[in-house]
Structure formats: C-alpha cells, structure tokens
Amino acid sequence: MNVAYPPTEFISDSDAVSGFKTLLIEGFENPYKSVGRVRITVPENASLSFTATLDEHLIIEDDCDQQDCDTEIIIPISTVHRIFEEFEFLDFRDPDFIGTIELKGRLGTGRSPRKVLPSSIEHNPCAIRKSRTAPCTKEISRT
Predict the structure, then answer these.
(1) Which phi and psi angles does 71 have, rounded to 5°?
(2) What is the domain count for the chain?
(3) Where are the alpha helices (DSSP H) in 49-128?
(4) Secondary element (H or E) of residue 17
(5) Is the residue at 7 inside a domain?
(6) For residue 142, what pLDDT is reported?
(7) pLDDT tens by residue, 61-91
(8) Range of the domain at 23
(9) Tens-digit pLDDT profile for residues 19-62
(10) Closest by alpha carbon to 130, among 35, 37, 53?
(11) Residue 5 counted as domain residue
C-alpha cells in the first residue's frame, strides 16, 4: 500500500493539533453509520480543543458547547505529538499511550480512543473506526 505519512514533528502545539484534525478528517470511515459529537480536549491549552461530529462525514469545529457533546476525550498535547512521532508503529493498546487519555460521557460514542482516533496507526493509515456496539447511556469517567 502506498501511503503518504504525516510529518513526525511540528513547530508548535497548534500545528500538531491542526495535523491531528487533518488525520481525523482524511481518514474518517463510518461503515456502521454511527452518529454523535465528541469533544477533544487538550488540557494544557483549551483554545486547541475541538469537537468532532460523527455522521455520514466527519465535521470538525473549533468551538463547542461541551453540554452538546456525547463524549469527551481528554488528550494531552504530548500524546498528540506522540501520535505523529510514532505514527508507523504506535500501538493504542500500550498502557503508556492509552493511560494518558481520559474518557468522559457515553461509551457508545467514544467507546475507546482507538475507536474515535485514527486507528490505523496499526492497520490502515488515518482511518477512524466506530464501535459496533449499541450506545451506552451510563455516564463514566476514566483515567
């Protein structure tokens, strides 16, 4: 497979988040027709946070009323940078990676970061996969 890999480094955190948004948009797949709004929060700099609306297409918005979101994924800027640094071989199951990401809200929309974030760092570069399970309405907070 011929794949254009993203850069491994960015000059600024803002550039890294922009690159992350591009990965999400270009790799979006939604074969199960899942819908929902996921708030991606960068705790070190709230202005870098954004919302991803999952439907037929992925829509990224730079601002969102958090109450309108089904799920929040809190991802440190260092983890965003790590996605690019280790793009070819990053394993989302690695506790040192997944342990940096916190989920809040409905499990059905953000079942795991691997379901919402680009899962193809392992298999199909830049793809986003959604959960096959029905949405869970139980509120959660995981660290």
Answers:
(1) -140, 150
(2) 1
(3) 77-85, 95-98, 113-116
(4) helix 13-26
(5) no
(6) 45
(7) 987 666 688 889 999 999 999 998 988 888 8
(8) 13-136
(9) 999 988 888 888 888 888 899 999 999 999 999 988 888 999 98
(10) 35
(11) no
